[in-house]
Amino acid sequence: MRKSITISLLVLAVLSFGFFTINAQSAEAPAAPQIEWMTIEEALAANEETPKKMFIDVYTDWCHWCKVMDDKTFSEAEVIDYLNDNFYPVKFNAEQKEPITFKGQTYEYTPAGRRGIHLLAYALLNKQASYPSFVVLDEELNGITILKGFQDKAKFLGNLKRATSAK
Length: 167
Description:
The protein is α+β, with helices and mostly antiparallel strands. It is 46% helix and 20% strand. The protein has helices at 2-28, 40-49, 64-73, 77-86, 119-124, 153-165; strands at residues 54-59, 88-93, 100-102, 105-107, 109-110, 117-118, 133-137, 143-148. A four-stranded mixed beta sheet has the order 2-1-7-8, sandwiched between helices. The chain has a two-stranded antiparallel sheet with strand order 3-4.
């Protein structure tokens, strides 16, 4: 009996040591690079201080392809670096309820259709709401382009670079 208790305690000690070692190693691992997403209000404030192009990911919580963009394209190192280096990257929920003042005009959420829409999303997308959509603005907050739908890394970066180099 005493021998089995000793063996059980020894096994428990070894397993506990392994658990703590694994947790310590994972806690030390550096965080993977990510897009430094901002709210539109944060980006507007930053743009007042230091003008920079703005990239706006117009999404909804229920949009499947928006989630695929997050998981596949927006997780790619080259995409992360390009967006962080060249833009104020913004995540904008097209169904958010809070009012936003943009270029001197206040936009609000309006119940419309099945779910409703924030009127800033509607304006940014030229009254053609579809998700995901990506709006690129210049330093003066004028529209450069709107990209629509899921895009893999190569297509997304190509479209984004063409759009921003043309202006």
